[in-house]
Amino acid sequence: MTSPSKSQSSVPPKPPGHDQQPGWKRLSDTSRRFIKRDPQLLPLAAM
Questions:
Q1: What is the pTM of this model?
Q2: Where are stretches of biased composition, namely Basic and acidic residues (predicted)?
Q3: In terms of pLDDT, which residue wins out, 42 or 27?
């Protein structure tokens, strides 16, 4: 695994209104629910 500092620097800064659009949060929640139902989807959500 790469060091957290390296991955953080490669990630672009989030826009000011990012917290107002929790689309990725909803997606992660649904994927987590699917993983609980089918652990085989874990590698799919890790992408």
A1: 0.28
A2: 26-39
A3: 27
